Amino acid sequence: MSGQPFLPASPAALKGVRVIEMGQLIAGPFAGKTLGEFGAEVIKIEAPGSGDPLRNWRLMKDGTSVWWQVQSRNKRSLALDLRSTEGQDIARRLIAEADVLVENFRPGTLEGWGMSYEQLSALNPRLIMLRISGYGQTGPYRDLPGFGSIGEAMGGLRHLTGEPGRVPVRCGISIGDTLAALHGVIGVLTALYHRDANGGKGQVIDVALHEAVFNVMESLIPEYSTFGAVREAAGSALPGIAPSNAYRCADGYVLIAGNGDSIFKRLMAAIGRDDLADDPALANNAGRVARVDELDRAIEVWSAQRPTEEVLATLVEARVPAGKIYNARDIAEDPHYRARDMILRQATRDGYEVEVPGIVPKLMGTPGTVRSSAPKLGDDTDDILREMGIPDATIAALREKGAIA
Predict the structure, then answer these.
(1) Taking the model in full, what pTM does it have?
(2) Largest alpha-carbon pair distance within the chain?
(3) Which CATH homologous superfamily contains domain 18-216+347-401?
(4) Is the N or the C terminus of the chain less surrounded, counting Cβ atoms within 10 Å?
C-alpha cells in the first residue's frame, strides 16, 4: 500500500524464474527490475569496488543515488570480477542454473570472456539470453558504442522533438534505454512461454536501442514510402491530427485533445465557438487539419483568459480529454496516483524511507510487488556463493584475490 514500506506479499507470476543480470546503468537493469517486480529472483553481478555506475548518478542520499533505490529493488548484489578467471567460472556456474541472462555490454564482450551463447547454452540448454546493445549483435554498426540518446537519434525520435527550425531536444529522460528494456522484457516473457511449451530450449533475444525506438515511430516510414513525406518537428502539436496541442492559460499550459469528431463539437461548444462546431468543413479530421492554425488560435484565445483549473473544469464538464502538464510535485501530490499505488514509500538499506514509482502493469491476480530494497554493493555475495556450495575458506580466498567483494 502507498503508506507502507513494501507492497504486501501476493502470488508472483514469475516465481521460480532465476535471472542473472550482468548489465549496468539503464537498459539491462531496467529489464531486470521489471522481471524482479513480478517475482523473478534477480542476481545482479557488479564489479568489485565500483559497482554499477548508476549508484552514483544524479542526486545522492547518504552516498548513493536515490535512482538506485528504484532501479535495483528486488535484486541481490553479487560483487564479482568478470574479468578474472575465478569470476568467470562462478558466473558460468550461476548461469548453468538460471533461466535468463540479461546483459547490455558491447557485442563481443561476453565472447571475449568465454561466455558466448553457444558456450553457455551447452551448459544450460534452457537458457534465455537477453542482449541489449546500441546497434544489435549483427550488422555493420554492431561494434560501435551506443547509448540511449544515440538510439533515440538513429531511431527517428530526436528529429521530431522540439520546435520547428530549432535544435532537436531530448525528452528529458533516457527513453531509448527504457524502450529497449521493455522490448527486452517482452522478448523474455515470450521466450519463457515458448521454452516451457515447446520442449524446453532457450534462445537469444537481440534488442538494439535504435530499433526499440524505431518500433514506436508509428507511420514515419509508411508515409515516406508512400508519399515521400519526411515528418518534421512540430513542437507540442500532433501533426496530421487536429486539434491536439498545448494551449496557454492565464497561469500555465494545458494539453487538449479535441481531435475526435464528436469531441471536437463539444470542445467548440465549451469555448463558445458554435460556428466552428457546426461548420460542415470541420466535421472530420481532414477538414480540421487543413485549418489547424485557425482552430489552435480559437482555442487559445479562450484558454489564455482563464486559469488552468477553470479551463480543466470546463473541459471535464464537456467530456473533452485535457490535462495539466505535471511536474514532480504535481505527481507526488495527486490523489489519483496515490489511490492506484503509483507512489510507494520504500525503505532503504541506508535507514531512511523514500517515495518511489509504483509498479506497472497492474495484474489483478499476480500483481507486482516490492519485496526487498536495493542492495549495497556485494550485500549478497557470501550468501549466494554459499548457496552454490562454495566453502567459506574458498570464499575468503576469492576475496583475497579480488575476484569477489
Answers:
(1) 0.93
(2) 85
(3) Crotonobetainyl-coa:carnitine coa-transferase; domain 1 (3.40.50.10540)
(4) N
